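Handout for the seminar on molecular recognition.
Each group receives one record of this type.
Step one: identify the two inputs.
Step two: read the structure output and locate the region that could contact nicotinamide-adenine-dinucleotide.
Step three: write two sentences on what you found, then compare them with the reference statements printed after the record.
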Amino acid sequence: MFTVSDFVTLANHGDIAVVTIDNPPVNALSPGVPEGIRDLIATAAADPAIEAIVVIGAGTTFIAGFDIREFGKAKANLNLADVILNIENTAKPVIMALHGTAFGGGLEVAMGGHYRVIAPSGQVGQPEVKLGLIPGGSGTQRLPRLAGLAKALDMCERGEPIGADDALRSGIVDRIIEGDLLEGAIAFAKEVARKPIVRTRDRAVTGLAPATIAVLASATMSFEEGCRLERELFDRCLRSTESKALIHAFFGERAVAKIPDIPKDTPIADIRSAAVIGAGTMGGGIAMSYANAGVPVILKETTQDALDRGLNTIRSNYASSVKKGRFTQEEMNRRLALIAPQLTYDGFEQADVIVEAAFENMALKKTIFGEIDTIAKPTCILATNTSTLDIDEIASATKRPEMVVGQHFFSPANVMRLLEVVRGKATSKPVIATSMALGKKLKKIAVLAGNSPGFIGNRMIHIYLREAQFLVEEGATVEQVNEALTDFGMAMGPLAMSDLAGIDVGWRIRQESKHTEKPGERQPLVADKLYELGRYGQKTGRGWSLYDANRKPSPDPETAALIRQIAQEAGIPQRKISRQEITDRCILSLINEGAKILEESIALRAVDIDVVYLNGYGFPRYKGGPMFYADTIGLSEVIKRIEAFHWQPAPLLAKLAAEGKTFN
Ligand code: NAD
């Protein structure tokens, strides 16, 4: 062990050097400490046996800050910024392992490293402002390069510390280490030992939104110069793909209301009362949507137990809104009073619309529709919330198929804005027009879809999720697949989405749709196995990933082993799969299936598909939806990539590409 100062020591763990700061009680940057860190890092870097260097604090914390008592004293005149620069120039990767409070000079030293890992309870911050100061070790310059401008401004201006999760999300740290920090940091160091070094100071500042630049100009430029800059930035924004995508989404959400064969003067019924069948996940949320819009709604179940469960969920959802200050207790009571829970069909004869949200089972749905056909008034709209089943077959259980329509809400139905209105072959125009208008009344965006298994959204998501599963069977990890798609901008990774929706739900849908599988077509193998093991995703605490009590995911080694075993048994060769391939295969699946849906007129226009994906599936709005995104990469490029995977491009896609056209 080498010691050049009383406060810092160096020890080698194989090819990883560990520099430990030991200046109790809080490892403050007293004279000798920064120099010690610098010198021992240099010693370690000069050792040919060493691949990477970990810097860690002894005791309860990393460096908690500068030694406040030393401010202004001659001895403390050492330039911290220079020391940090020296650390940053180290030719071998320097990994800062943070725990406790890495504040002020502590965070600045940490940002001089090439990587940062943190214990789950660790905190980082630039609290200098609380002493009337600003960061003095280049923190104002490095923090925006890691966290982006807005976050850095907030941290430096308010001086409030942030926790490990926030630090990870904002890019200040690279990983949270559960368990022993030093062990985790050494393992991380081995992973990055041979990677090229990226210095914080060489990174570009992100989050420098044009609006921020323009507003900052007001403080640094004359009014005229500021206005000129604003004009320039405005023009640049206007030409950007992001702005075009957002404008496409804005107009798209209005365009979907127009249905070419349904004239504007089609009579629209006023929906003043509703009835919902089934108080499960969907029925409860649908009933809340009606109550939120001030429409009285009957909620029917088969057993008192199920009814109580459903109502308890509704109550606790409302109560949490009250707690968050979204509305008052009186408002909650008013909404609850609009929901009439019951076990019978009493009052159904008054309803203007009945929405069936029972189990996804054709026989059950036909029985229910047969029953409501005998009770409902002639003008009542008979809607089903089925996700995948044939609307025409459901309608055939009634003597009035023209009154039957799909009203496909998305989970959670009281929150999600999308409503797919599904047109059966007999559905009347007034029923469609009324369903579209009803969407607006319930503050949803209604999109018309044709009657095809899964309609627009789920038909496409089925292909997308299938591809995500193929990727893990071929060697990608669950985490790689999820991350590639969230990096693309999806609100959630595909396998995280299956875990949220429920592996059991997917399984039930597969049972109902097995007859549509083409013989010889590759089918995913792992989801059924997870179902058999009772791993339904978030609701059982494990599925593709493991979930803790707060539903926070972590990798599940058993699932990983299961995937490898299944792949081996099926003879699927394993390989490393790039992030680009993961994203392409998933997103191109959406695009290719979208093109088929368009060609079959299941969607009226490409923009309808985009609106479905923006509002129902967390597709990034700044990319405009899958079909708009395809247009931005260019359809011939889309074809090229599809063919590279040896897929068959949808005929419409091939045709548009050949003609040099776009979807939108
Ligand atoms: P769920 O299992 O949570 O709830 C179904 C409820 O219906 C149960 O409480 C059950 O007791 C009740 N029920 C069954 N038969 C009934 C009857 N004859 N009368 C009254 N109640 C009855 O299911 P869910 O997830 O709410 O799904 C309901 C429907 O919505 C399904 O068709 C499903 O495909 C569809 N859907 C589900 C989702 C989703 O994400 N869960 C999204 C969109 C559509």
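Reference statements: The first helix runs from residue 33 to 46. The two ends are 67 Å apart (CA to CA).
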